[in-house]
Fold this protein.
Amino acid sequence: MKNKTLPAEVARRIPPGQFLTQKFPVLTYGSTPKIKTEDWRLQIFGAVASEVTLTWDDLMSLPQIELKTDFHCVTTWSQLDNVWKGVHIREVLKQIKILPEACYVMAHAYGGYTTNMPLEVLDDDDVLLAYGHNGECLTPEHGFPMRLVIPKKYAWKSAKWLSGLEFMQQDRPGFWERNGYSMSADPWREERYW
Ligand SMILES: Nc1nc2c(c(=O)[nH]1)N[C@H]1C(S)=C(S)[C@@H](COP(=O)(O)O)O[C@H]1N2
Ligand SMILES: [Mo]
């Protein structure tokens, strides 16, 4: 949709160089891993007091929330008002003790995808681990059983099929970050590539 035909309050929410889509496009590098909830694991490792592996049932026993957020892909589509259902990141972080020297996090996904971020980007009010979208279960293409959602960054930081959170003392580029994408990925500053 052309931005100039949008109502001002909608246009204001579209970052520079982005266009509104009403669809839910699938953007995946490689094939879609098929993971059953009973086989899904989240491994929390690296700079933590002790490493923890969480199961689907562990996640389901934590408080569940819904968060409505916007989603901006670096390939220029933006999608507004996604209602994600899942577990707030801080509920997950309460399960572990992060060492003081941990300043960065690598999100790992089934299939080998990775993406890095500063700890304060992960540990924020609007971040969740999601299994639902707009009232339905995520489809496998969109990251079922569990994906990360980091609305304030370009969507490549929202790792689908999340399998691990690695806490790190030093920053390290993830998959797209090694292949030309920005480490910081702020859509409002158009931090697309390096
Ligand atoms: N594991 C994994 N997560 C991923 C990707 C991927 O290729 N693999 N693509 C990223 C990109 S570039 C985008 S735009 C969003 C797209 O999410 P969607 O396919 O649910 O729209 O997922 C992100 N998370
Ligand atoms: Mo993307």
